[in-house]
Amino acid sequence: METFTNSIEPIANAELERHIRARLDSLTKPRGSLGRLETLALQLGLIQKTGMPGVGRKAVAIFCADHGIVEEGVSPYPSEVTRQMVENFRAGGAAITVLCRHYSIEPVIVDMGVGAPTRNFLREPAMSRQQAEQAIEEGMRHADDGDLLGAGEMGIGNSTSAAALFSAFSGLDPAETAGRGTGLDDAGVARKIDAIRRALDLHQPDPCDPVGVLAAVGGFEIAAIAGLILGTARKRRMVVLDGFISCAAALVARAIAPASLDYAVFSHRSAERGHRRMLEFLNAQPLFDLDMRLGEGTGAALGMNLVEAAVRLYREMATFESAGVSDRAL
Description:
The protein has helices at residues 2-5, 14-26, 36-48, 80-91, 95-103, 129-141, 158-170, 174-177, 186-203, 210-217, 220-235, 244-256, 275-281, 298-316, 320-323; strands at 58-65, 106-113, 148-154, 238-241, 264-266. The protein has 330 residues and is of the alpha/beta class. Strands 2-1-3-4-5 form a 5-stranded parallel beta sheet, with helices on both faces. The radius of gyration is 20 Å and the shape is elongated.
């Protein structure tokens, strides 16, 4: 655990925050009128320890893996769709790759276990503790993929793993955390809920042991996203999270190093059942709600665009003084 938490510290810096807020208030606009965009500029400045934050290389890491729990009928799609979608990513035909082209973001496709799934966690732990730690470490290495990072994923069955993680950390019944995923009917959702309940009864995961929880019911790609969050925090970079799956990874990262979420932006509120409750549990406020539930990192790409817009406004807007515009009376 110490390896994962080295050099992760809160971003709070009262003096730098006053400096950044003073510049925001000096720009040619009513104070606070850019709302969350101002907060994003402030957050990035605190992360980068500078009064003039910038966005350099942008990349979305798309971690891909298969899940043994699919054997229990928890997804309407077969596991081979994971591999097929990876090929689609590489060909540039997926939603995330279209958005990456549009926003000049590099898509980094990472095979974390395509065709080599986690074990069926209804019968045994999804992975060994060593495998969980190795997957976290792999995700941490991808913090060097860019200066502004996004977290994406692909893995048939991973919404079941994410819901199981949420139930394990929150104590909520799976009926409140498990949803339709890629389009389950009512009977499929009932199977999913039952599988998670039985798995939690079998493993009795301890939320005070986040790596143990991850090993019991997690996924290789979820572990890698947790590692990406930890890695960006160590490198003092910002990571923009996607929806339900990447936020499940944030549960793990927070349990390992609470300050790591100072470096994260929660892009959107997914339409997946449980995501609203998950965001509340994380005390996270998403940037937008577009009823999206695709995954892949699509919400993260949109969120990264908002971060870049916030920084450009902060850096490039004129001040009242430089523009010769009268400020309000003090």
